[in-house]
Amino acid sequence: MTTAPALEDSTEQDCCTPAVTSVLDAQTAHQRARTFKALADPNRLRLLSIVKAGSLNGTCVCDLTEPLELGQPTVSHHLKILVDAGFLAREKRGTWAFYSMVPGALDAVTETLLGL
Amino acid sequence: MTTAPALEDSTEQDCCTPAVTSVLDAQTAHQRARTFKALADPNRLRLLSIVKAGSLNGTCVCDLTEPLELGQPTVSHHLKILVDAGFLAREKRGTWAFYSMVPGALDAVTETLLGL
């Protein structure tokens, strides 16, 4: 997740349509939308909530299925999206995978919002 | 958009599964996911960016189609989602509708993130 400036400098100033020169470019908008899409699911928000409240050493995937009343494949699917989006880190220990928050990941999203 | 506490108090403390008692409840998770879903689209992020950078008196819908290279119906569809999610306010003046940021709306999302 990057926090690139939302407002692009323009070499051509047009006094009558200032908003047009400030539009978020398409590529950056796509990247940011992908981040928000990872958060746009109630089960993924609940998973983040559990992991955030859990041990700093990580929360075992075996403790994530019961509170959500979802099957292991569904939980794993949502966890993969959260890992790919940079919110969660995954560490395999023996049989189980443990998930922990990526430090600063939520802060980066808030900066993205404020930088819109 | 509310900023209800993410961590629910539990009357039953279970030392072995602390994360379970902290899970975001399903209803709150659904509400928050809907907010993030409104942000999970590149065109909506670009619209927010333009309106945020525009006049405090609002940006005419007639100035929102060209920078996004989208048709009026598509832009209106996205604007309605942003209004319904509480990010934009809509004011009709004569023929045109003008859109402005709802004060504090983005701040409320950042509080939601930090309160996960």
TrEMBL record, chains A, B:
This is ArsR family transcriptional regulator. It comes from the Bacteria. Keywords: DNA-binding, Transcription, Transcription regulation. Gene3D superfamilies: Winged helix-like DNA-binding domain superfamily/Winged helix DNA-binding domain (1.10.10.10). Residues 24-116 form the HTH arsR-type domain. Pfam families: HTH_5. Coiled coil: none annotated. PANTHER family: ARSENICAL RESISTANCE OPERON REPRESSOR, TRANSCRIPTIONAL REGULATOR, ARSR FAMILY. It comes from Arthrobacter alpinus. InterPro entries: ArsR-like_HTH (IPR011991), HTH_ArsR_DNA-bd_dom (IPR001845), HTH_MetalResp_TranReg (IPR051081), WH-like_DNA-bd_sf (IPR036388), WH_DNA-bd_sf (IPR036390). GO terms for molecular function: DNA binding; DNA-binding transcription factor activity.
